[in-house]
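Example 3.2
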Amino acid sequence: MDRQGDVIDPARAAAMLAILGRAQDIEAGAQMPPFFHQLYFWDARPTQELGRDGHPRTGIGLIPDMGLPRRMWAGGRLRFHAPLVSGVAAEKRSAVETTNRKSGRSGPLAFVTLRHEIWQAGALCVTEWQDLVYRQDPEKGQPRPALPNAPMGEEQATDVTFDTTMLFRYSALTFNGHRIHYDERYAREVEGYDGLVVHGPLLAQLLMLMAQDALGPLRGFSFRATAPLLHHETATLCRKGHALWVRGPDGRQCMQAEAEV
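Structure, written as tokens:
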């Protein structure tokens, strides 16, 4: 098990609220919004320990080398046991829960599930399961898989836009070096996207805040990325009851989620 300590700095939380366009009313002693633990416990590896994509190389840290170059955050599940408090030291305990390999329509796939526990003042505050998928580079001319259509009939909808500055600031604040979020040439020429990719956790964060604003404090939240959203696209955050999703401008579903209160 890997252990990291950090102080839940209110200034970092205020910076995230600024990125999200929310009031920066976080002070020491305040309860943190859900999922804000992602701003802390940076894995600051030396440059020589990074892979071509800007992430820490697999096989030298917690994540084993699965032999495939492309990494994606496929989804996750969270349990909120108690709110984190800003200005107080905390510890993150991480372990690999499962690894698996299988063949998909686009070739071999590898799946890694990490379990993170966030502890503060001797109490477990958050348990998070992070699902990662690794795959081959796309072949030129290879047909793209059909993307799922997003549901309609939501009771709440909010349009959101992204730009390169927002993606860069979010990457910096979460210490996410993945080049698909800020290096457009790499995203297009190496990983085969049509532009910069909006972070899956950023979309999940927006959905969590939408759910909490509408339903009250969250006990749990699960999400799954189903299609990439690009930085030049307008997306719609949707909610119907406890179900949430992100709809792209062409009607595709980019993420689906479920809130528990």
